[in-house]
């Protein structure tokens, strides 16, 4: 049996091809890739995978004849059910024409005349800034009670203050222990069990109905042990528990947090300790108000320290030090946003969910430590492109700011990655075509809708002479509107994108994810290797040269393949170098579709589209303008 890369491993496998070397031996070069280092591997930690959803899915698929997972304990139960089992169907609110019009308005571009046919399958949803697809361990929970005000207890979850009742009480920078309600010193350990949203709402209703019989904070929130809520359990050490007084976090401790350059462990060693069980977290009650210091750093209060602990619980994570420093040095981050949870990470940094204080808008903040030239140039490229574009299916830019050592790119909240969406739908039985679902477990109409939206975005980029350069399911974000039962797909991550200047020569170099590189890049790599070994000069014509649009189309074809099959073609997932090399040799000898397996029983038009997008020879590959007008996409 051959060893295959799993899809999660494949995520880590990003390789940036050597630019300088390429440039030295070619006539033209792109101006925006000056500072690429020779070889960069992406240690992309796979954070996005949603264990909760996977376990739900497993429950449903492995359970005795159950067809639906047990979502009893999850606050997003209705949304999850809709998400998992009710595919968008005929109730699409938007038409192809709407898409085309929106795109034209955004870009001032005309679509080819034949693209203007009506297509009811290109649905989008109204903007919905909630991430229903990735409720993580830090599931949003809000609680407040007359005896346990949210302003004093919302430190118990990274998202709790994100979802607290009012902005005023949730603003991170203003939340601190209230001296008037600070409790005296004892080391009583109080276990606070956060109820599920439904339980909490019930309790709150009951409390408001019987205000006279107000339960104490502890008895109200601790309740009977519930193993299913273990993940949400947080222990707070409180100094005392006065009767009939609101319970708050203990008073601030005077010492500031000292950050030493050599270690970022100081936080965890002095202020919080994580228990063996990742699901539980012990937090010391120490808390400090913000205060300016001569170094420009400020003390982190308990709230922020807790957020930090929740986002990056591993002590050796360098991202942890970056975020801590960002909290301390960047008042804009502290004051304007309430940071929630980790949405994902990549080679340039990590992405956090956040809520903007002044209008409550949910956004994503990409935190990019400015520690090397590679991330700097990637960031500049991304900022340039996001700032210049507005499209319904391209992640919207909100703002940008920076602090010493870090850059922050604020964008719309994009939902879950398509990678996670596909993983979530995958059936353990593999490719079985049942009830209109493709081998991936996703309905064909949903695949069509998502793919059409992403194709329109990519087409718009190409029309604006921009090559994305790293099209993959991790760089597509999906939100679902559970009211209309429709999806919205958006392209993100423009770190490898390139503007093609008027009059520039074709000189595309592939920087994206190695295994998603189009076949023609093999030839370039082989030449590069040959030149390295022998110091030979290679003729200009030997290179496969184009602007890069063709590479985007190939990657988009692989995305369609994955949406249909649930996985990349097995040839690309091969671990064994010899077998991989053999496959690459084989595909050099064909000009058309290079993969052995193609889902049987799928629509002939769909097959045709796949084959045209994944053609080995770039000259045979169709363009994005042809893709959006392909019969499979325009039918229905
Ligand atoms: N606006 C957003 N909303 C929700 N999730 C997001 C958003 N932006 C990014 N993410 C998540 O964070 C992950 C990493 O983001 P992104 O790909 O932009 O980082 P990167 O460092 O540029 O990655 P790469 O190494 O692939 O270039 C994405 O795969 C996605 O899952």
Automatic annotation (TrEMBL):
Keywords of this entry: ATP-binding, Kinase, Nucleotide-binding, Transferase
Feature: compositional bias, Acidic residues: 276-288
GO BP of this protein: intracellular signal transduction; negative regulation of glycogen biosynthetic process
InterPro entries: Kinase-like_dom_sf, Prot_kinase_dom, Protein_kinase_ATP_BS
Coiled coil regions in record: none
GO molecular function annotations of the record: ATP binding; protein serine/threonine kinase activity
Record's compositionally biased regions (Low complexity): 170-188
Name of this protein: Protein kinase, AMP-activated, alpha 2 catalytic subunit
Gene name tied to this protein: PRKAA2
């Amino acid at each position: 049996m051959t060893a295959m890369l799993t899809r999660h491993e494949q995520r880590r496998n990003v390789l940036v091809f050597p630019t300088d070397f390429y440039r030295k031996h070619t006539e033209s070069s792109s101006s925006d890739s000056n500072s690429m280092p020779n070889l960069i591997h992406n240690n992309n930690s796979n954070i996005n995978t949603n264990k909760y959803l996977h376990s739900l899915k497993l429950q449903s698929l492995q359970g005795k004849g159950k067809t639906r997972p047990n979502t009893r304990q999850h606050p997003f139960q209705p949304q999850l059910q809709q998400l998992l089992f009710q595919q968008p169907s005929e109730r699409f609110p938007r038409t192809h024409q709407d898409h085309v019009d929106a795109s034209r308005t955004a870009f001032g571009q005309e679509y080819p005349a034949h693209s203007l046919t009506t297509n009811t399958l290109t649905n989008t949803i109204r903007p919905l800034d909630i991430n229903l697809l990735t409720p993580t361990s830090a599931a949003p929970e809000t609680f407040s009670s007359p005896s346990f005000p949210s302003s004093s207890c919302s430190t118990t979850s990274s998202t709790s203050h994100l979802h607290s009742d009012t902005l005023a009480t949730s603003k991170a920078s203003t939340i601190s222990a209230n001296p008037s309600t600070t409790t005296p010193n004892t080391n009583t350990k109080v276990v606070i069990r956060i109820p599920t949203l439904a339980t909490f709402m019930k309790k709150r209703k009951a409390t408001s109905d019987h205000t006279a019989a107000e339960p104490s904070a502890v008895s109200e929130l601790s309740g009977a042990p519930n193993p299913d809520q273990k993940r949400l359990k947080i222990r707070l050490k409180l100094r005392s528990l006065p009767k009939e007084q609101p319970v708050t976090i203990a008073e601030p401790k005077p010492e500031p947090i000292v950050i030493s350059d050599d270690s970022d462990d100081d936080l965890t060693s002095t202020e919080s300790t994580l228990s063996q069980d990742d699901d539980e977290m012990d937090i010391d009650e120490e808390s400090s108000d913000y205060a300016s210091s001569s170094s420009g750093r400020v003390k982190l209060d308990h709230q922020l320290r807790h957020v930090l602990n929740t986002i990056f619980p591993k002590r050796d994570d360098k991202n942890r030090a970056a975020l801590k420093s960002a909290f301390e040095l960047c008042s804009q981050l502290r004051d304007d946003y309430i940071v929630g949870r980790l949405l994902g990470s990549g080679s340039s940094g990590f992405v956090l969910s956040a809520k903007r204080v002044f209008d409550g808008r949910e956004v994503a903040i990409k935190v990019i430590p400015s520690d090397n030239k590679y991330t700097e140039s990637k960031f500049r490229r991304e900022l340039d492109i996001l700032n210049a574009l507005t499209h319904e299916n391209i992640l919207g830019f909100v703002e940008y700011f920076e602090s010493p050592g870090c850059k922050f790119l604020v964008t719309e909240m994009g939902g879950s990655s398509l990678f996670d969406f596909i993983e979530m739908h995958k059936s353990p039985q593999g490719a079985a075509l049942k009830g209109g679902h493709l081998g991936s477990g996703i309905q064909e109409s949903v695949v069509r809708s998502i793919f059409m939206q992403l194709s329109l975005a990519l087409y718009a980029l190409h029309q604006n002479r921009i090559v994305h350069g790293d099209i993959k399911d991790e760089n597509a974000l999906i939100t679902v509107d559970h009211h209309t039962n429709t999806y919205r797909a958006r392209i993100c991550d423009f770190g490898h994108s390139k503007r093609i200047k008027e009059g520039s020569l074709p000189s595309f170099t592939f920087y994206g994810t190695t295994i998603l590189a189009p076949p023609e890049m093999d030839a370039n790599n082989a030449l590069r290797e040959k030149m390295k070994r022998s110091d030979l000069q290679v003729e200009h014509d030997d290179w496969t040269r184009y602007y890069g649009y063709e590479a985007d189309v190939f990657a988009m074809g692989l995305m369609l393949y994955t949406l249909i099959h649930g996985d990349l073609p097995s040839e690309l997932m091969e671990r064994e170098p010899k077998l991989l090399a053999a496959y690459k040799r084989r595909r050099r000898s064909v000009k058309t579709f290079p993969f052995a397996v193609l889902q049987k029983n799928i629509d002939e038009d769909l097959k045709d589209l796949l084959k045209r997008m994944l053609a080995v020879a770039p000259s045979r590959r169709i363009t994005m303008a042809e893709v959006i007008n392909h019969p499979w996409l325009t039918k229905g």
